[in-house]
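Appendix B, Record 12. Input sequence as logged:
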Amino acid sequence: MSEIKYIIFATSNKDKVREITEMTTGKDVKVLTLKDIGFNDDVEETGTTFEENAHIKAKAVYDYVRSSGKYEDYAVLADDSGLEIDYYDGAPGVYSHRWLGERTYPEAMTDVMNDMKDVPDEKRTARFVCAMSAILSDGSEKASKGICAGRVAYKMAGENGFGYDPFFYMEEYGCTTAQMTPEQKNSVSHRGQALRAILSQLEIL
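Logged structural output:
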């Protein structure tokens, strides 16, 4: 495997970009986003699993980058992640973003907490799941997965996270993932786990 000079992250989410940038600080690799490479297509996520959707996104961006001929020694990286709540039989899962509908994240979280207000701790279990897919410039592929277990909180707390972080409570830390420092969250989060695993496979960590 040749040395990777660019990680082309198939996302427009500034929070995800920030996380991978923090994890690759000091490494001899440049992180590029969809905006950086001029990719504007809306990739339809038709998979039924996190792994399938991550690969669909990675393949679409890889095909675009390869046809452009602008980069060498790169890895296209894509992720699909979401929240699984056992009380809802694993929903919203791969539909975590679409599950919002017209609601904001705080509105959706408030609806869930109101619905589960009388549900005891042992039945509030939930997990964040993240699947990563990487396709290298030579066409070889890597994959990883991270799982962060916790439970649905009784009230939202914290300003440091994004998405569903303010109502995802981790008993062992006594706080939500939105109350953690970026360093602490990266060390335990589903995306942090998946990123470390795939960056290790890419020989970047």
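Helices lie at 14-24, 34-37, 50-68, 105-115, 182-188, 190-201.
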